[in-house]
Design brief:
Number of helices: 3
Oligomer: single chain
Structural class: mainly alpha
Helix content: 40-55%
């Protein structure tokens, strides 16, 4: 997923799409860093979920970022917001 975002991220000319991809990438690397650096290490660590709201699952900032990115991407697709400017488009 991150490699795909890096590939297509170079083609983004839209601020909303850049924010959406940045949120997704931030969430990916936030959870991945927990997996890598928490004991016992080597991609076996546990992701720490620490935000608890009544009547809601426990989550963390990276989870919020991924979900926000998914919602924003869905909205941008629904509104047909251009990802990048093609030839002749302004």
């Amino acid at each position: 997923m991150a490699a795909t975002i890096f590939y297509f991220g170079r083609k983004v000319n839209s601020n909303p799409w850049a924010v959406a991809l940045g949120l997704a990438l931030g969430g990916i690397f936030g959870n991945l860093s927990d997996r890598i650096f928490r004991s016992p290490g080597r991609l076996q660590g546990e992701v720490v979920d620490w935000i608890q709201i009544p009547h809601w699952p426990i989550f963390n900032i990276a989870d919020t970022s991924v979900v926000s990115a998914a919602i924003l991407i869905t909205y941008l697709n629904w509104r047909n917001v251009s990802f990048s400017k093609g030839k002749g488009e302004e």
